[in-house]
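Good morning,

Both structures are done.
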Amino acid sequence: MNSVQNQKQGFSIYTVLLLLSMIFMLIAVIAMYVELGRYSPDYWDINTGRVGGMVVMNLPLISN
C-alpha cells in the first residue's frame, strides 16, 4: 500500500479565499453594528422622535 494515497489533500487557494472572505465579512458586520449603535438615533425611544414644529415663511409672491 502506498502511503501517498492515504494522505489528506491540503487546502486549495479557493478554500483559503473563501475562508478569508468569510472572516472579512464577519468583521464588516461587527463594525457596522458598532457604528449603528454609535451614530444612529434611538429608534425605540418615542420621546426623542417627536417633531417640535415646522417653520413656514410668509413671503409675498413675485409676479411679472
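Second structure follows.
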Amino acid sequence: MLFDRPAQTNVTENLLRTKLLLNNYTQIGDWSLNTRINRFGGFNSFDNAVANDRSYGAKWIADMALGWKATDTLEFAIGGNNIFNVYPDFDPIGFNRNLGAGFYATSGAFGFTGGYYYGRVGVKF
C-alpha cells in the first residue's frame, strides 16, 4: 500500500491540538533581552497496528537571548533554544533496547535532542 495508516493520519490527524506563543523583546540602552515561551499541545501518533497508537502530552519550551551592542557596528549575544532541556514524552513502542534508539517521539512539533546554547557576534558593514 502506497499510503498506509501512519502516512494517512500524518496528514489528517497527527497534528498539534493547540499552540501558544508568548514573546517579549526588551531593550534598555545597549542591552537587549529576547524571550520566547512556546506551549506545544498534545498530539497523537498512529501505527498500522491500532494497538501501537500513542498519545503525547503538551510541553512548554523556553528560548532566551541576551544581547549587548558594543558599538554601532558590533554586537554580541548569548542565548539558547529550549533552555530548560525539555524532551518529548518517552516512546515505549519505538524504543529499541538493542540499538539504544527511539527514546522519544519524532513526529512532534519540537525536536528530540533537548536544548542548545550559543554565542553570536554580529558585525554591520
